[in-house]
């Protein structure tokens, strides 16, 4: 029987399955009191290994119950206020509803004949986002939804590479490829270096521009880096500026960088995977001033826009540059097609209708609703920074810009190296306890703890509670850390 499939014969089965799943999730949601269980990796491994994949349970209710036991009970809960580790957000309920819709209909947006209005909806959102960026309509801005910032950055840099190589210049394509450089701030996301590698550029293709005081890109050093590449006969495929660095939330000085790029006729890519939500912030849109001068922009809707993974977009100032991603197949997207085929703009072929999530969110709470939620998160980061700064046993490593707070715990009598060692053990102990999840990183050669906020429901009291937990586990661990250091 095919009654497990979504067909005209199965509306009742479909509704029952979804209702029972949704009811299970709702009960679970009401009961969550910590960002994860305290189960050990060994326990979880046993749980999953014990399932016999060759013996189906046959009944969805039983499967939902099993999945609750295996997955829901142990998943990392991004909506819990004790979760402060990475750029994960509680998700917009209209977006979750959209996921149920798109999963059932299973639209593939790559061609008109698999998609129809879904194509138009994605295109409207792309146009809308390009408008929010402020790309001039005269340049024909365009873009495409992608699976994330990593893919958006890859396609941006691929497009920039091809645009550069399409300009007249001495040398064969191979010779020019070897001399191509990507110039990025030292805090640029690692996906930039990965993209350079995937794009077949030379191992030293990524030129990192040092930071000025405060951490953002030093524009004098940028100017110098561009001159150096040009003086040695190389070509700059793109400058990558970051609007919201993953660690520190830094925003590079976009207007000055854009001016320099224009002067050198160099492609400017702005990686706003994290900071892109500022496009709808009622109070902080100015932090993105200058983004309208970029040639390409990455925005992750699954970070500061409260969308479920995956939802990202690459937006181009001049949509005609998407032609570099176009390959035609007679059976799918022939050259002379009358209706739009989004596959012409994408690195993917079969592609999810992720745009509907953002669409239904905007249609429910509006851009302002999203922006206000982000503002609350950014306000919280400022307050958390103050709380950390005022605590005698905590050291604020950098003033928060967006929603990350970097700090070190300094119990009395602990030297720098011991404080360094303490960071990772504290982070791991908190994770193991299941009661709070924070991140760690290295800034200026020193390890520090990191809060990343993206939950508008998290309060200063939640932050104080996590700081207390950090003190508690540090107190328990300190003898261990000291011993590890002595070894
Ligand atoms: C998160 C992030 C990325 C990568 O995005 P994914 O959606 O995780 O692939 C790229 N750049 C910046 C600045 C980011 O914060």
Labels describing this entry:
14 helices; seven-stranded mixed β-sheet; 487 residues; 12 strands; Aspartate Aminotransferase, domain 2; five-stranded mixed β-sheet; single chain; alpha/beta; Aspartate Aminotransferase, domain 1
Topology:
Layout: H1 11-31, H2 41-49, H3 60-72, E1 83-84, H4 93-105, H5 117-133, E2 142-146, H6 149-165, H7 173-179, E3 180-185, H8 190-198, E4 206-209, H9 219-231, E5 235-242, H10 254-264, E6 268-272, E7 296-300, H11 301-304, E8 312-316, H12 355-390, E9 394-396, E10 404-409, H13 416-433, E11 437-443, E12 446-452, H14 460-486
Parallel strand pairs: 1-11, 3-4, 3-5, 5-6, 6-7
Antiparallel strand pairs: 2-8, 7-8, 9-10, 10-12, 11-12
Helix pairs in contact: 1-3, 4-12, 5-12, 6-8, 9-10, 12-14, 13-14
The chain binds pyridoxal-5'-phosphate.
Please, could you describe this protein's structure?
It is a single chain. By secondary structure, this protein is α/β, with parallel strands linked by helices. It has two domains: 107-353, Aspartate Aminotransferase, domain 2, CATH 3.40.640; 364-486, Aspartate Aminotransferase, domain 1 (Alpha-Beta Complex). The protein is built from 14 helices and twelve strands. The chain has helices at 11-31, 41-49, 60-72, 93-105, 117-133, 149-165, 173-179, 190-198, 219-231, 254-264, 301-304, 355-390, 416-433, 460-486; strands at 83-84, 142-146, 180-185, 206-209, 235-242, 268-272, 296-300, 312-316, 394-396, 404-409, 437-443, 446-452. The strands form two sheets. The chain has a seven-stranded mixed sheet, with helices on both faces. The chain has a five-stranded mixed sheet with strand order 1-11-12-10-9, with helices on one face. Helix 10 (254-264) links the parallel strand 5 and strand 6. Helix 1 (11-31) runs parallel beside helix 3 (60-72) and helix 6 packs across helix 8. The model has no long low-confidence stretch (mean pLDDT 96). The site of pyridoxal-5'-phosphate has 15 residues, from helix 6. Residues 87, 148-150, 153, 189, 191, 242, 244, 246, 271, 273-274, 300, 312 line the site of pyridoxal-5'-phosphate (PLP).
């Amino acid at each position: 029987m095919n009654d497990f499939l979504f067909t005209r014969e199965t509306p009742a089965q479909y509704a029952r399955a979804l209702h029972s799943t949704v009811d299970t999730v709702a009960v679970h949601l009401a009961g969550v009191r910590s960002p994860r269980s305290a189960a050990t990796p060994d326990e979880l491994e046993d749980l999953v290994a014990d399932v016999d994949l060759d013996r189906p349970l046959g009944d969805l209710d039983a499967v939902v119950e099993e999945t609750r036991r295996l997955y829901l009970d142990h998943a990392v809960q991004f909506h819990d206020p004790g979760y402060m580790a990475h750029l994960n957000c509680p998700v917009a309920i209209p977006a979750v509803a959209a996921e149920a819709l798109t999963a059932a209909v299973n639209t593939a947006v790559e061609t008109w004949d698999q998609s129809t209005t879904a194509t138009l909806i994605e295109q409207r959102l792309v146009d809308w986002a390009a408008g929010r960026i402020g790309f001039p309509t005269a340049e024909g801005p365009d873009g495409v939804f992608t699976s994330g910032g990593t893919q958006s950055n890859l396609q941006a840099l691929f497009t920039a590479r091809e645009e550069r190589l399409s300009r007249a210049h001495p040398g064969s394509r191979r010779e020019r490829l070897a001399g191509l450089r990507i110039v990025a701030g030292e805090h640029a996301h690692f996906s930039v270096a990965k993209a350079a590698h995937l794009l077949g550029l030379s191992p030293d293709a990524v030129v990192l521009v040092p930071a000025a005081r405060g951490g953002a890109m030093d524009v004098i050093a940028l100017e110098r880096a561009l001159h150096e590449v040009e003086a040695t006969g190389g070509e700059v495929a793109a400058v990558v500026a970051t609007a919201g660095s993953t660690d520190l939330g830094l925003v590079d000085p976009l207007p000055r960088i854009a001016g320099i790029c224009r002067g050198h006729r160099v492609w400017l890519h702005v990686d706003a995977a994290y900071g892109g939500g500022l496009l709808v912030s009622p109070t902080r849109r100015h932090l993105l001033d200058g983004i309208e001068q970029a040639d390409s922009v990455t925005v992750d809707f699954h970070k500061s826009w409260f969308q479920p993974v995956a939802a990202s977009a690459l937006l181009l100032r001049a949509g005609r540059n998407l032609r570099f991603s176009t390959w035609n197949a007679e059976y799918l997207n022939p050259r002379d097609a009358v209706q739009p085929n989004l596959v012409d703009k994408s690195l993917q072929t079969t592609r999810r209708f992720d745009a509907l999530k953002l669409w239904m969110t905007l249609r429910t709470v509006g851009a302002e609703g999203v922006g206000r939620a982000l503002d609350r998160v950014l306000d919280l980061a400022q307050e958390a920074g103050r709380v950390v700064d005022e605590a005698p046993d905590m050291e604020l490593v950098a003033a928060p810009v967006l929603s990350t707070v970097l700090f070190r715990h300094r119990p009395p009598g602990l030297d720098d190296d011991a404080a360094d060692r303490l960071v990772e053990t504290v982070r791991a102990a908190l994770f193991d306890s299941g009661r709070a999840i924070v991140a760690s990183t290295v800034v200026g050669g020193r390890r520090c703890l990191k809060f990343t906020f993206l939950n508008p429901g998290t309060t200063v009291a939640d932050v104080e509670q996590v700081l207390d937990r950090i003190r508690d586990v540090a107190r328990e661990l300190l003898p261990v850390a000291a011993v590890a250091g002595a070894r």
